[in-house]
Automatic annotation (TrEMBL):
Belongs to the ferric reductase (FRE) family. SUPFAM superfamilies: Ferredoxin reductase-like, C-terminal NADP-linked domain, Riboflavin synthase domain-like. It catalyses: 2 a Fe(II)-siderophore + NADP(+) + H(+) = 2 a Fe(III)-siderophore + NADPH. Keywords: Cell membrane, Electron transport, Ion transport, Membrane, Oxidoreductase, Transmembrane, Transmembrane helix, Transport. It comes from the Eukaryota. Its EC number is 1.16.1.9. GO terms for cellular component: plasma membrane. This is ferric-chelate reductase (NADPH). GO terms for molecular function: ferric-chelate reductase (NADPH) activity. Gene3D superfamilies: Nucleotide-binding domain of ferredoxin-NADP reductase (FNR) module. It is a multi-pass membrane protein. It is an enzyme of class 1 (oxidoreductase).
Length: 586
């Protein structure tokens, strides 16, 4: 077995200490069991996702020619219970994505769902158990401290593999298991805390046995003299610093600072650790983690090169809109099929240097610039190169990159600028609403950008008979009517689509109207109201007329998402409701 061989190598012939040898083998085995257990959990989740997908597929097929879909309007009671109490449930009561804030600027993070907590509890207890199992605590400090030291060090290093894998935007588990980046990111952060604690336990058990043997002065001396110990210390301090400087407050207030510091500290910790592990079998874990990191970076680079540089360069037209938003239209050199719900990362070097920011793709359109010169027959190649793609984003002005960009666009003569950009993607797009007879979309402010492609897709799908949807309701809350301008061109196109009136209803809520004259409903299917929506009432209305299963999607502030979550959970016992939440932060 691999661990046996590795442990023997580490001993380099061995000094005949059979106890140490036993523990050396054991800790490597434990590390392997741990990684296997994680892989097993992911595999289980994969099977669960496949089951849900198959279920949704059959529901969609059944819904195609069926206008009542009565069978799907209620859920199996076990499923309903599971969704209501585990999958969709926040840890306590109703709070999930509304941030805990000390002030407007200081964000203390959010609370996980019960399902996330459950997985997390498994992860933590597994680590605690593997750290202490078979450690000979009864045999005195000197013996057990060494075993504990080696064990915690080994497990910390092994944990780096999933830790690094889950950090990347190109994490293969995202499409495979169908869990979004922010869920994996949640586990990335917790694995990091576990690693930091294990590194601390590792350091302190080394100190304990050293002090026990030779006193405190020996500890300081060894830091000076032994490269092995010094590099270990640097790595441990690095991992702890990574956790401390990765706090939610810093991440949200100064994202770029956080990111650069994060990469720098990670490099320091990894380099120090690679020196520390130079002659130890645990180096394989670090190497695997570093390879995962390198591959992710390479994929990003390759996507960027393919989309933006090989061929024609990508340009972005940035147009300032009323209400602190911009429409960004990207002209891409290649056709790019975007599924509803996908996002991309935007780089604008002249504004944000090498940094990239995630934005949902609101609209995409092939732009056929066929310069049909007379007498020239176009070859397929010509046609391909003439066919371009435009992709549009709706971006809300915040305080960093988006603020600088907005100011630039606003200052220019016609309120728009054209700049060189890089578009990296597509990412995400894990959710599919094609199997729901009834669809409700809740959006707050700029969150509408995530829903627009779904609306377009469902209305088109309804006309073509390709989706189960019979009722699609959009509930959009904005502060003032001028925000309607944000999506006007796209909404106009959607409202003119074939058979739209039969399927789509739009409800606009203006939370801060200046006067009531502003609030006018253009038609029976597009209505405007003052104030905020009452989620409970709106959901009850839909349930009364529910066709098939209901898919509820929300993209807005954390508070809004929590309201919708609670309202859905309260109704899952008697209506088949799936909740899908998209948030613009992590
Ligand atoms: C999947 C996804 C889709 C999004 N889609 C849209 C969209 O369609 N329209 C829109 O207006 N906004 C969208 N956002 C939010 C958008 O990415 C941020 O508002 C933007 O990056 C803020 O940039 P800034 O430098 O001005 O931010 P700041 O004012 O410095 O920070 C504002 C917030 O944005 C977060 N943030 C800043 N930079 C990044 C980054 N590079 N990556 C992740 N988060 C960051 C910060 O943590 C903070 O919470 C989306 C976010 C995500 C995660
Ligand atoms: C701890 O690890 C070191 C380095 O691999 C090894 O030399 C030593 O024998 C181990 N000790 C115990 C008690 O496992």
């Amino acid at each position: 077995m691999a661990p046996v061989v590795l442990a023997e190598e580490a001993h380099g012939g061995g000094q005949g200490n059979s106890d140490a040898e036993f523990f050396n083998i054991l800790q490597m085995q434990y590390a392997h069991y741990m990684l296997l257990a994680m892989a097993g959990a992911v595999a289980l989740f994969f099977v669960w996702t496949m089951f849900l997908k198959l279920n949704a597929h059959m529901r969609r097929l059944h819904g195609l020619g069926n206008d009542t879909q009565r069978f799907f309007a209620r859920d199996n009671y076990r499923m309903a219970w599971l969704k209501r109490n585990i999958v969709d449930a926040p840890l306590f009561r109703s709070r999930h994505n509304r941030e805990f804030q000390l002030s407007r600027a200081i964000n203390m993070g959010t609370l996980p769902t019960r399902f996330q907590t459950f997985c997390l509890a498994g992860l933590i207890s597994m680590n605690v158990a593997l750290c202490v199992l078979h450690v000979p605590f009864s045999e005195g400090l000197d013996t057990f401290a060494k075993v504990l030291r080696n064990r915690t060090g080994t497990l910390a290093t092994a944990n780096l593999i999933p830790l690094v894998m889950l950090a990347g935007r190109n994490n293969p588990l995202i499409p495979l298991v169908g869990l979004s980046f922010d869920t994996w990111n949640f586990f990335h952060r917790w694995l990091a805390r576990i690693v930091a604690l294990e590194a601390l336990a590792h350091t302190f058990s080394w100190i304990a046995s050293k002090v026990n043997q030779a006193g405190w002065s020996a500890v300081a001396e060894t830091f000076h003299e032994s490269e092995f110990i010094l590099t270990g210390l640097v790595a441990a301090v690095g991992f702890v610093a990574l956790v401390l400087f990765g706090s939610s407050a810093l991440r949200h207030a100064f994202y770029e600072t956080f990111l650069h510091l994060h990469i720098f500290l990670a490099l320091v910790a990894f380099i120090a650790l690679s020196q520390h592990l130079k002659e130890l079998p645990q180096l394989v874990y670090l190497t695997a983690a570093l390879i995962a990191w390198g591959v992710e970076r390479f994929i990003r680079f390759a996507i960027n090169a393919y989309r933006n540089i090989l061929g024609k360069k990508t340009t972005a037209v940035v147009q300032a809109l009323p209400g602190d938003a911009m429409r960004i239209t990207l002209r891409l050199a290649r056709p790019w099929t975007v599924r509803p719900g996908q996002h991309m990362y935007l780089y604008i070097p002249s504004v944000g240097f090498w940094t990239s920011h995630p934005f949902s793709v609101a609209w995409s359109e092939p732009e056929r610039v066929l310069t049909e010169e007379k007498g020239l027959v176009m070859t397929r190649q010509d046609w391909m190169s003439a066919q371009k793609e435009t992709i549009s984003l709706l971006v809300r002005r915040r305080t960093g990159f988006t603020d600088t960009l907005y100011k630039k666009a606003e200052k220019s003569a016609d309120g728009q600028i054209s700049v060189f950009a890089l578009a990296e993607g597509p990412y995400g797009g894990l959710h599919n609403l094609d199997s729901y007879g009834t669809v409700m979309l809740f959006a707050g402010g700029v969150g509408i950008t995530h829903h627009v492609p779904f609306i377009r897709h469902l209305v088109q799908g309804y006309a073509d008979g390709l989706v189960a949807a019979r009722r699609v309701t959009l509930v959009w809350t904005i502060q003032s009517p001028e925000h309607l301008e944000w999506i006007r061109p796209w909404m106009t196109t959607i409202l003119q689509m074939d058979r739209r009136r039969d399927v789509l209803r739009v409800m606009l809520f203006i939370s801060r109207p200046r006067n009531t004259k502003e609030i006018q409903s253009p038609s029976a299917t597009v209505q405007m109201f003052p104030g905020r929506p009452n989620v409970n009432t709106l959901l009850d209305l839909e349930i009364e007329n529910q066709i098939g299963a209901m898919g509820v999607m929300v993209c807005g502030s954390g508070g809004m998402a929590d309201d919708v979550r609670l309202a859905c959970r309260q109704r899952q016992a008697y209506s088949n409701i799936d909740l899908i939440e998209e948030s613009f932060t992590w």
